[in-house]
Design brief:
The chain is of the alpha+beta class. The chain folds into two domains: 69 residues, 2,3-Dihydroxybiphenyl 1,2-Dioxygenase, domain 1 (Roll); 50 residues, 2,3-Dihydroxybiphenyl 1,2-Dioxygenase, domain 1, CATH 3.10.180. An eight-stranded mixed β-sheet has the order 2-3-4-1-5-8-7-6, covered by helices on one side.
């Protein structure tokens, strides 16, 4: 099957509390990864199934939220196709630390979704 969900990400207004809560609630392995002077990212390894990450919410005034990412073969093409079908592009195609590229769209019903293209091995 094409285009599976490949990553789920929490943008939290209280990252420490979120890490404590989810670390106790589930048997997830949380691994902090520094991403620069003002940002860190916590990888979530769930064992079997789709993993994800946690980070500080970057949208002022927004509540904490989860965002799912779908694997695409061509990130530019998929982002433009979504836009042509009525989606709003919230974040243009952006490289992520040499790991791949993401974009974030909001579908015509108002639901946000991330698109992900990993860097070729």
């Amino acid at each position: 099957m094409g285009n599976p969900f490949v990553h789920v990400e929490l943008s939290s207004n209280d990252l420490g509390a979120a890490k404590t809560f989810y670390g106790k609630l589930f048997d997830w392995k949380l691994e902090d990864m520094p991403m620069g002077p003002d940002m860190s990212y916590t990888m979530i390894n769930v064992g079997d199934g789709t993993g994800g990450g946690m980070m500080k919410n970057m949208i002022p005034g927004s509540p904490s939220f989860w965002l799912a990412y779908v694997l695409v073969d061509d990130i530019e093409k998929a982002t433009r196709k979504a836009e042509s079908l009525g989606a709003k592009v919230m974040k243009e195609v952006t490289e992520v630390m040499g790991a791949g590229w993401l974009s974030i769209i909001v579908d015509p019903t108002g639901a946000a979704l991330g698109l992900w293209k990993p860097k070729a091995a």
